[in-house]
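Feature request, filed as a ticket because there's no other form

It would be nice if the structure record came with a short human-readable summary line next to the tokens. Right now we just get the raw output. Example of a typical job, pasted below so the devs can see what we mean:
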Amino acid sequence: MTPLIRPLRHARAAAAAARGSRARKAVALGLATGLAAAGIALGTGITAGAAVQGSLPTGTQLYKDPASQVARWVSANPGDSRQPIIARRIASQPQAIWFSNYRPSTVTSDVRAVTTPAAAAGQVPVLAVYEIPNRDCGGASAGGAPDLASYDTWVRNFAAGLGSGQSIIILEPDSIALTTCLSAQQQADRFASLSRAGAVIHAAAPNAKVYLDGGHSAWNSASEQANRLRNAGILTNADGLFTNVSNFNTTGNEVNFAKNVLASLGNPGNLHAVVDTSRNGNGPAGGGAWCDPSGRAIGTYPTTNTGDSAIDAFLWVKPPGEADGCAGAAGTFLPDVAYALASAGSSDPTPPTATPTTTPPTTIPPTTTTPTTTPPTTTPPTTTPPGGAACSVTYKIASAWTGGFTADVTVRNTGSSTVNGWSLKWTFPADQKITSAWNTKATQSGAAVTATDLGYNGTIAAGGSTGFGFQGTGSGTGSPTAFTLNGAACSVS
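Raw output as currently delivered:
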């Protein structure tokens, strides 16, 4: 089964200046709650009293796709040192299956390939629908159906595969929160199509729960998002809203925001919310970094046992370890990224996974410590490349937009001895500043940058290479012309 790998949305806002509203998406609102602990449900007394009872029964078993990218990687790499923690903390968990490739002729069978085994196992699949025309406002995850008429047909075919079992539908991330590229008429047309989609899904699959795009707590106001959701048919053709998809905001902030949206909608008893907690264990990255930022952690394990009648589930909608588009091609599973996220999580899941073993607290506890993201327990001694230019560096600007860019760096050991532990240094030629990095720890003082290994990638065999990348800001994107590896000058290729 190969249906569903998406071009991972939220490589969103690669051209941040072109989408002013997106620039706010990774802004931290504080309250780093440290909710990555296994199965720790969130009980809150925050704001508006919401719906009377949840839409999903406590103890609902969510479906784990045996053909997911992380499951395949774990199976294929039993000897990899990163495999055990990735297997325990990520591959063991149910995650959303994305439908983002426009294949109208096969979508019904593609959906059945998920819902049929899920129903047989007595589990509930999470399906993320990502086909709305002009999705991501033409950004890094551009695509979708060619027009709304085609989309309506595609949704009918999608719904035909859901069957009579329970399912959770995450209907079109960003489609309601991100409309800056649409005229008023286009926005109205999109919202009408989303309302039709919810009605079609419910008609074909009465046990499906449909959640519409609620954005997240650092984007539109609750009242504005509620107005948009109302126009998109949430009161009649949906079961609630989702928040934080592919983002990093703390669960406490998202629960608070979701309740405020529900309050703005009048707290209808049939509406609830789900929150994406897949990567928010350490909250959002500093400086507004959103594209594969370092230092993040897996969040609360997927569960319907939230301890809050307004919140149906904490879900992993964005599969941890799949790239946003900076560390690798959007949607690609990267074991280094998965390892870093898993290592920063506070604990393994507690069997049965995602089921709390203690009564949830009534208030959100403040974070007192931040889990480390340094994966190794020991670091091999650093060795200097022998001889003159025993290293070579390739520095490439991968993408650029007004005020920002991403870069890929490849370091080759051209010497005859293995390098154990590396530190690469260079000086930017202009005002560039690194905001986030992957596969390295990057520090900067003025224009001078030092990038060091993360332990698991610290060995470069003779003739071998390693790579890393980063996102930066600055008015220029000129490339450095001189690099040193562990103090030895490198050639530049």
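Something like this underneath would help us a lot:
The radius of gyration is 23 Å.
Confidence is low (pLDDT under 50) at residues 1-53, 353-382, 384-388.
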